[in-house]
Specification:
- The structure holds two protein chains of two kinds.
- Chain A is an all-beta fold.
- Chain A is 0% helix and 55% strand.
- The radius of gyration of chain A is 13 Å and the shape is globular.
- The relative contact order of chain A is 0.33.
- By secondary structure, chain B is mainly β.
- Chain B is built from no helices and eleven strands.
- In chain B, the strands form two sheets. In chain B, strands 2, 4, 5, 6, 9, 10 and 11 form a seven-stranded mixed sheet that branches. Chain B has a four-stranded antiparallel sheet with strand order 1-3-8-7, with no helix packed on it.
- In chain B, a hairpin with a 2-residue loop joins β5 (44-50) and β6.
- The chains are: A mainly beta, B mainly beta.
- At the A-B interface, β4, β5 and β9 of A face β5, β9 and β10 of B.
């Protein structure tokens, strides 16, 4: 079936270190979205990437969409304790209408 | 207002009970979603409504019955649930269901359901 693989499953970092999570799809995506879920919270939309090779930045967060539109990454520079949470990528396909396929998520822990 | 509200926040029910989860949004969105999320797992899509009509049912058991009374409200009626149905139930909305690419989804805080 259609899958979006996300690695790593867990990441522990010291505050100030960088962090990257990767998503890979078995099929070409029309777009990819990133969500953050704080512990005990709900997913909150971060960004959407639509174009091949697209790179977007939000302060310390950098999002990339691969040239083939099959992979994506989220990089956080100089992590802070407020970055703690689970980061999900979610891919959409042209024929999927309202359906997003979520990756398994990366649980980020930041040690002060 | 970019808020999706859900009630109740927590729900404990027995396997013979009937209960309902409610979701509301006032962003003028025409697509609404129900997801189920287990601990440390991604949200799993259950249902999608577009313009108050059921658009997607991800082969969800009939003990879950969705309802969209109007464009702002979405209900999930629960009957004869099993303990394995215990989870966080998330509602989400988006502007619409686009053909070309999926719209941003705004999630509510969820209802934490425990089935005994």
């Amino acid at each position: 079936g259609q899958q979006v693989m996300q690695i790593p499953q867990y990441q522990h970092v010291q505050e100030g270190e960088d962090f990257t999570t990767y998503c890979n799809s078995s099929t070409t995506l029309s777009n990819i979205q990133w969500y953050k879920q704080r512990p005990g919270g709900h997913p909150v939309f971060l960004i959407q990437l639509v174009k091949s090779g697209e790179v977007k930045k939000q302060k310390r967060l950098t999002f990339q969409f691969g040239e083939a539109k099959k992979n994506s990454s989220l990089h956080i520079t100089a992590t802070q304790t407020t970055d703690v949470g689970t980061y999900f990528c979610a891919g959409g396909r042209l024929t999927s209408y309202g359906k997003l396929t979520f990756g398994q998520g990366t649980i980020l822990t930041v040690h002060p | 207002d970019t808020e999706v509200t859900q009630t109740p926040k927590h729900l404990v029910m027995g396997m013979t009970n009937k209960k309902s989860l409610k979701c509301e949004q006032h962003m003028g969105h025409r697509a609404m979603y129900w997801y189920k999320q287990k601990a440390k797992k991604p949200p799993e899509l259950m249902f999608v409504y577009s313009y108050e009509k059921l658009s997607i049912n991800e082969s969800v058991p009939s003990r879950f019955s969705p309802e969209c009374p109007n464009s702002s409200l979405l209900n999930l009626h629960l009957h004869a649930l099993q303990p394995e149905d215990s989870a966080l139930y998330l509602c989400a909305s988006s502007q619409n269901i686009a053909v070309k690419y999926q719209e941003t989804q705004y999630f509510g805080p969820g209802t934490r359901l425990l089935v005994l």
